[in-house]
Write a structure and sequence with these properties.
Blueprint: E1 2-6, H1 10-21, E2 25-30, E3 48-51, H2 55-67, E4 72-74, H3 83-92, E5 96-99, H4 105-121, E6 128-135, H5 145-157, E7 163-165, E8 174-181, E9 187-194, E10 199-206, H6 210-223, E11 228-230, H7 232-237
Helix pairs in contact: 1-6, 2-3, 4-5
The chain binds NADPH dihydro-nicotinamide-adenine-dinucleotide phosphate (NDP) and ligand LZUJQKHR.
Pathway: Amino-acid biosynthesis; L-lysine biosynthesis via DAP pathway; (S)-tetrahydrodipicolinate from L-aspartate: step 4/4
Protein name: 4-hydroxy-tetrahydrodipicolinate reductase
Keywords: Amino-acid biosynthesis, Diaminopimelate biosynthesis, Lysine biosynthesis, NAD, NADP, Oxidoreductase
Length: 240
């Protein structure tokens, strides 16, 4: 597989390492200082582009790639207010696009556990939900993309949770998401339901960001043979 890497920071480098180990070629490496070279990427030289840059550049990078008919996967968080525009462009151009807030297989199982628990908790009135996400101090966005996916999973399954806020909340109908930044933490997410008499808590801890990069390459190997707007859940459901 010929992979173009868009964004060559912590994730771009980790993805490159795993891609090469699995026998893939890197067709382009695009970073801040050569970002206009993104226009050179085409289906003639690249099977899939993988975008891990920063919240302020992801939308432009993704739309450039899709406009040039390049299959695109994105992991950058913090730009999702424009997701519908990307979806519309992908449909208009008969393209292929996949965004996941978290490429760890374990986190994606955790998403399912979170949704199951939220449905159960929707029947109990005493419990106040809360979330804490902890990441390294270089992280640019808050709350994390993973925390937003978890919050959406809770809202979908517990209609009494009307919204989320990026601070603590004592209100049963408002999910408080607390973001903490600590040195060298790859990503920790905890969902808690607290009542006066008991607490239920589920946690996912990433020990190394390689877990995201490995997921990215496995999903990319699948996505190169697919078309349309894809999801990581679809990928996981197709694993034997
Ligand atoms: N979905 C998932 O599973 C995961 C998602 N992430 C997300 O991925 C993103 C990147 O994370 P990470 O690698 O840790 O961040 P880094 O800051 O380490 O790397 C980002 C890189 O993007 C470069 N960049 C800046 N502007 C552009 C541009 N216009 N075009 C191309 N590259 C550009 C930066 O260059 P410079 O340094 O010169 O500015 C930097 O090298 C974040 O949004 C993070 O939240 C992270 C881990 C897992
Ligand atoms: O910035 C990071 O590092 C991470 N970002 C993603 C997010 O915002 O959820 C995924 C992972 O938690 C690491």
């Amino acid at each position: 597989m010929r992979i173009a890497l868009i964004g060559y920071g912590k994730m771009g480098k980790s993805i490159e390492q795993i891609a090469r180990t699995r026998g893939h070629q890197i067709s382009y490496i695009i970073d801040q200082d050569n970002h206009s070279d993104i226009q050179k990427i085409s289906p003639d030289n690249t099977d899939i582009a993988i975008e891990f840059s920063q919240p302020s550049s992801a939308f432009d990078n993704i739309t450039t790639l899709l406009s040039n008919k390049v299959k695109t996967m994105a992991g950058t968080t913090g730009w999702l207010d424009r997701y519908d525009e990307v979806k519309a462009l992908c449909t208009r151009t008969n393209g292929t696009f996949l965004y996941a807030s978290n490429y760890s297989v374990g986190v994606n199982l955790f998403f399912e556990l979170n949704e199951w628990l939220a449905k159960k908790m929707s029947q109990l009135e005493d419990f106040v939900p809360e979330m804490v996400e902890i990441h390294h101090t270089e992280k640019k966005d808050a709350p994390s993309g993973t925390a937003i996916t978890l919050a959406e999973g809770i809202q979908k399954n517990d209609p009494s949770v009307k919204k989320w806020v990026n601070e603590s909340s004592e209100d049963h109908h408002t999910l408080g998401i607390i973001s903490k930044r600590e040195a060298n933490v790859p990503g920790t997410h905890t969902v808690t339901y607290r009542s006066p008499l008991e607490t239920i808590e589920i946690t996912h801890v990433a020990h190394d960001r390689k877990v995201f990069a490995e997921g990215v390459i496995k999903v990319a190997e699948w996505a190169t043979n697919q078309t349309g707007i894809l999801s990581i859940r679809e990928f996981l459901n197709n694993q034997s």
